[in-house]
Queue: 2 jobs
Job 1
Amino acid sequence: MKSIYNYDLKNLEIKLTKLGEKPFRAKQVFSWLYEKRVDSFDEMTNLSFDLREKLKENFVLNTLKLVKQQTAADETSKYLLECEDGALIETVLMKHDYGYSVCVTSQVGCAMGCKFCASGLLKAKRNLSAGELVNQIMFVQKDLDKREKRVSHIVVMGIGEPFMNYPNVMEFIACVNNDKGLNIGARHITISTCGIAPVIKRFADEMSQVNLAISLHAPNDALRSQIMPVNDMFNLEELFEALHYYQKKSNRRLTFEYILIDGVNDTLQQAKELVELVKSMNAYVNLIPYNEVEENPFRPTQPKNAAAFYDYLKRHNVQCVIRREKGSEIDAACGQLRANVEKQRSARR
Ligand code: SAH
């Protein structure tokens, strides 16, 4: 049965009307789901018994089960969740000085095959539904409710390529963004993509207030193609053409993510190429210390190289930060917890 978290307010109105209900009921149900955050239809006490029964016959609520939770000293918390079909996904909560953000998974596994990433080791299995995306936020929000805190920001930066699951990700955003629901502002939501150029343009047309982050990781086509096969589909020229289009439409500052990998993309020559590539954009560069993945040969850059790379960008007027690592002691990086649990499971089989 379909989870009711799959419906944004508009679609819930349509669905309830089809079930013979007045459209305003959808607002009441929405409020129970997202403001009062109940766990069952029986708790929706201002609805008639008949309507509650009808809801129970047609929908389920929570479809995710907690398999494992790990919390680090800095309050980063990682939830390993199991979907109804047994698929495992990871959701991460992070505390910042500006609030709490949740990093959601958009696909079970990933087909993009970036060489440095742990998610690719698991291959792509399927897209998550909009309801499974919303459910991840609700799972974490209900946990935060115990501390009377609220999810203020969302990053679609977990396992998967969100722009290969575009319609579901957009429905998810419409749902959490709704002011009758969680009311998380578009400007507090960031989608990260490895660079699916045509979808970036579509996104610019439809969701121009949502932030966009691009996983760049290399300053030229030769290197980028080596470590990110997506570059053979959409090279840097096509990617940047789409990004200029996005900036024209949205006027928003872009984020470039650049993982620093020892001896691969962390030289001063590469910093120079990176400056050339991004200097004409309204953007900042997030330099991210690479998180080691046991199964592949890449290692994090040396701190002195990271510092030199950062200084070079700064001196050439590229806005950038070296992002602090959060929760590395809990396998918080990119598919690592899930990969580790799957390894244990298959060892047991
Ligand atoms: N598919 C999307 C979102 C998921 S990956 C994208 O590519 O943007 C989220 C970010 O983590 C990406 O920038 C990705 O390149 C990066 N990443 C993957 N593996 C990593 C690792 N081992 N250490 C640090 N960052 C990693």
Job 2
Amino acid sequence: MTILQISGLSAGYGAVRAVDDVDLVVNEGEFVVLLGPNGAGKTTTMKVLSGLLTPSAGAVQFLGQDITKLAGWRRAGRGLVHVPEGRQIFPDHSVHDNLLLGGFAHRRGSNTQTDLDEMYGLFPRLAERRAQLAGTLSGGEAQMLAVARALMSRPKLLMLDEPSLGLAPLKVAELFAYLSQLHRERNLAILLVEQQARTALQLADRGYVLERGRIAVEGTAAELTSDSRVQAAYLGA
Ligand code: ATP
């Protein structure tokens, strides 16, 4: 089943067209990566998906419904959850309160305590630091908190914008191992924007390469990894 379908999407800022006629699909349980150089339009695509930016053309369908004009906060309630670039956790609140705020949007009748226990089980580092102010976490811990907070709202599709930014290589590996585990064990669909193409393609099922606002190459992770253009531009081959 298709979870997310983007068709003929164009978007930009004033006269700047940042995304031009993009088609992209994420199927149930699929891990899809969106690659591309600086300024290619990756973040712009994510902004349209999370409702921060209105597209100039095209449509976004989520779980079979047109959400092109749906307000951003309603999208999260439906299960389309975005971990933006820069993380956006609440620095003056504890780790625990940040997680509770993540669960806040969630439907009535759900069991927040069970979700919290699950997050602490998944990210033991956060359990150890549950009383610590989020603003004092290390970069890697803050990124884990941002992902855990997003998971508290029980997403059907988790969108992540460059979660590796500013993290040491070992922390990137750790975070990606968590993402991979979530994807496998919960069948969670993931759309990951990433500049670290080699690592991302090792995790993903499929991928798209965006160049100057257009999809330049698409295919399975194996196809992209063996594509000579992708190798030359993104894999340093
Ligand atoms: P990066 O990997 O560097 O984050 P990206 O692929 O996410 O890049 P976008 O942030 O989507 O790229 O930017 C696409 C284009 O839109 C770029 O040319 C950028 O300069 C331009 N752009 C982005 N935000 C704005 C804005 N608020 N106003 C004007 N132009 C913008």
